[in-house]
Amino acid sequence: MSLADAPPPTTDFTCPRCGGSVTEAYYGPCAPCRTTLRAEQSNEARAVEATDYIPKMNVTPNAVATKD
Asked: What angle do CA 24, 30, 34 make, to 5 degrees?
């Protein structure tokens, strides 16, 4: 077992979201709070149609593009 494969050390702390005492490898919300947050904050992907670009009337064409 190499050092990279070893699990990180755990520490005891209070969950900043629910206030419960937890033992985790990293500081942050506890596992149940993370599950709840993922369920509450996740969004489904949706198709968004982009409208065609219509330049404003004060925009003039590029002089090189209109050169004959």
From this structure: 130
Residue range 11-65, pLDDT digits in tens: 999 999 999 999 999 999 999 999 999 999 988 888 888 888 877 777 666 766 6
Measured CA to CA, the distance from residue 27 to residue 15 in angstroms comes to: 8
Of 21, 1, 3, nearest in space to 12 by CA = 21
- What is the pTM for the complete model shown? 0.55
